[in-house]
Amino acid sequence: MPRRWHRLPATPRLLILDFDGTLVDSRPWFLLALDDAARRFGFRRITAEEAEALRGLPTRAILRALRVPPWQVPMIALHLRRLAAQAPPPPLFPGVPDLLARLRAHGVTLGLVTSNAEATARRALGASAATITHWSCDASLFGKAARFRTMLRRASVAPRDAAAIGDEIRDIEAARRAGLRVAAVTWGYATAEALAAARPDALIDTMDDLADWIGLDPATPTRG
């Protein structure tokens, strides 16, 4: 597959990471939890085939397809967070621990933005949690772009010296609003086609390509 990115002109001082679908393979658990929530809150249950088709849609369109009324969204999100806190941690994608360690050794400050509880994210990351300096966890009323801007201020880093990595259309949109360059990875929740249509700075298919885009030496492949 042809390369769909150009290496950043300089390695970012701050790299803001998404969690679900970017660092951890939580989609199988999420589909089970979503079905649990559908039975509990009465919105439409979906088949595996329908779930795959929804990967190409933005969040609001997915909620419409599931027939979730807006007033129910906070309650459903809280229910899913509670289920996540009780469930075994989802596995890290292969290469994640090595990549995080290499970034830290290269002097890149790492931040994590997730709607999960911090304890849930730390359990999943295990020893790799020590590589994360800035944490922005739990639900937010102000959206992801605001959380990006807050993290930039806390880290005293200008948007031009930072970048974001995510796996959903909303990650790309939030990064744009915060003035950040953004890479979208294709191994998470959204399809490569949907991500490409949102026009990220980079569309990344492998962990080694992600390391190269950031500016790490590509000579040493990422390991599990």
Automatic annotation (TrEMBL):
The keyword NAD does not apply. GO terms for molecular function: phosphoglycolate phosphatase activity. It holds the Pfam family HAD_2. Gene3D superfamilies: HAD superfamily/HAD-like (3.40.50.1000), Putative phosphatase, domain 2 (1.10.150.240). The keyword Magnesium does not apply. GO terms for biological process: DNA repair. One of its GO terms (cellular component) is cytosol. InterPro entries: HAD-like_hydrolase_sf (IPR050155), HAD-like_sf (IPR036412), HAD_2 (IPR041492), HAD_sf (IPR023214), PGP-like_dom2 (IPR023198). Keywords: Hydrolase. This is HAD hydrolase-like protein. It comes from Falsiroseomonas algicola. The lineage of its organism: Bacteria, Pseudomonadati, Pseudomonadota, Alphaproteobacteria, Acetobacterales.
